[in-house]
Specification:
Blueprint (H helix, E strand, L loop, with lengths): L4 H27 L2 H10 L4 H23 L8 H27 L2 H8 L2 H11 L6 H18 L7 H24 L5 H22 L8 H30 L1 H5 L2 H16 L5 H18 L3
Length: 298
């Protein structure tokens, strides 16, 4: 994939795998702001589907414009690739609808706790595909889950519909990540990102249409959140994610999920006025240890 001289210079310095880890980490951090920011917007009256649809629609426009300027060849894809991207994009669209709707019923901290099981779902799917789960994988996963449990705490009640939506999101996100690794590895990450987001936008638009297609203005605060989520957590995060999947694999990226959860909780403290105990900060240390183990090179 053609890269700018600056990117090529950086890759030569850290190596292809090291650059993959950089993309994985930065994508993880960029995605970590989604839960607290989206929850904050929803609490302030923004409709979750309108929030999501606006974010995806703007991201697709930005991506398509970027590729048209860089090289229109990236907008071309063969029939087989188009079908695969359409299917995976549809899975991703349903997943992200479930996730955003769950924020209506479940507070940010409980979402973070339940979503911390995401790596397990990805690793189990990879195992079904024939990849071996090492002892090191399990140590990282257990350490991460223990840390998130301490950080979030065992208290709280989850609405059944919120729990169902989150469970669906976990399974579908794992399918999206693993299928991208298995079936889209040969395609440029910029092409993959654009077509997947386009398919996701169509699915979310269809969901909105089935729900009555009523437009409610997000307001100034809602639009600010939408722009941040579009540029940072969609445009950049998705480009980095799919390129990182090609370089280091979906299983390794899934093990970085606790770091994303930790960032989400810290921002929840700042935006939603939550408080952390000393035991919860200890959980944060466990999460950081898990992330450091995940990026340690053999």
């Amino acid at each position: 994939m053609p890269q700018s001289p600056r990117v090529q210079s950086y890759q030569s310095l850290v190596g292809a795998e090291g650059f993959g880890w950089f993309l994985a980490l930065s994508s993880t951090l960029a995605s970590g702001i989604v839960t607290p920011l989206a929850r904050s917007a929803i609490v302030n009256g923004v409709d979750p589907i309108i929030l999501l649809l606006s974010r995806l629609f703007l991201a697709v426009i930005f991506l398509a414009a970027t590729l048209a300027v860089i090289n229109r060849q990236y907008l071309r894809v063969d029939g087989r690739g188009l079908k695969r991207m359409g299917l995976i994009g549809a899975i991703s669209g349903v997943e992200i609808c479930c996730y955003f709707l769950s924020l209506t019923y479940v507070d940010a901290s409980m979402v973070a706790m339940i979503k911390s099981t995401q790596p397990l779902a990805v690793l189990l799917l990879l195992r079904l595909g024939g990849e071996r789960l090492t002892q090191r994988h399990m140590v990282r996963l257990l350490l991460a889950l223990a840390g998130v449990y301490l950080l979030i705490g065992p208290g709280g009640q989850v609405a059944p519909i919120g729990l169902l939506l989150l469970f669906a999101s976990i399974v579908l996100y794992a399918m999206q990540l693993v299928f991208t690794q298995w079936y889209l590895d040969s395609y440029d990450s910029r092409t993959v990102t654009t077509y997947l987001l386009a398919a996701m936008t169509l699915v979310v638009g269809g969901w909105w249409g089935l729900d009555g297609a009523e437009w409610h203005s997000p307001g100034p605060y809602g639009w600010l959140i939408i722009i941040i989520l579009t540029v940072v957590s969609t445009y950049y995060a998705r480009l980095s994610l799919y390129e990182a999947v090609r370089r280091v694999g979906s299983g390794q990226i899934a093990l970085l999920w606790p770091l994303q959860m930790m960032l989400g909780v810290i921002l929840s403290v700042l935006l939603l006025q939550e408080r952390l105990s000393s035991l919860q900060w200890l959980g944060g240390v466990f999460i950081l240890a898990s992330a450091l183990l995940a990026i340690r090179r053999r």
